Amino acid sequence: MPRHPSFHGSGARVGAALGALAAAVALAACGSSSDAGPKGPGSGGPGGGAKPAIAAEVTALRKSSCPAPYLVVHSKHYPKGEVRQALHGVFRIHHHPRRLVPPINWAQDPYNSKAYRSILAGLKWTDILLSAYRAGNLHALAEARDIALDWIDHNPRH
């Protein structure tokens, strides 16, 4: 898939954003304190129980050595309705609700807006999923991981 023209020459910024999200996902799964998040299988929170494969991945990450606990990028409280929407793939991108479920069209620009493209590529909008994971929802972490992996698949390094 060809890169969107707005991404030309911004590989370092996009790479940094992706690296930050990947680190956030990995760190969110780690936890070195008692308040580090869900405590094993079946603690999927509002989205229901976690699938065994997801729980196994989280367990493996918890056993690995981790840096300091991840503090969600925004210390923002997300309303339950907004979290529920995000768990169903609806996110607010530049003040517009958009359904973003892999495979995502990363070149989309329905508003002909450089700000929209920047926010979409920055992945900061996935913070709501990491926040939901920190509140106990394992499914939210899997959703954030799937979005990050989709971004990687559609934005190969040159």
If you had to describe this structure to a student in words, what would you say it looks like?
With 158 residues, the chain is mainly alpha-helical. The chain contains 6 helices and 2 strands, in the order H-H-H-E-E-H-H-H. It has a two-stranded antiparallel sheet. A hairpin with a 2-residue loop joins strand 1 and strand 2. Helix 1 runs antiparallel to helix 6 and helix 5 (127-134) packs antiparallel against helix 6 (138-154). The two termini are 13 Å apart. Mean pLDDT is 74; it is low at 1-14 and 29-48.
Instruction: Walk across the major sheet and give the strand order.
Output: 1-2
Structural class, judged by helices and strands?
A: mainly alpha
Total number of helical segments? 6
Helix-strand string: HHHEEHHH
End-to-end distance: 13 Å
How big is the Rg?
A: 16 Å
Average pLDDT number: 74
Strand content: 5-15%
Shape, principal axes of CA atoms:
globular
Q: How would you characterize the largest beta sheet?
A: 2 strands, antiparallel
Given as residue ranges, the uncertain stretches (5+ residues, pLDDT < 50) are 1-14, 29-48
Work out the number of β strands. Answer: 2
**Helical amount among residues, as a percent range?**
40-55%
What structural keywords apply?
two-stranded antiparallel ribbon, single chain, 158 residues
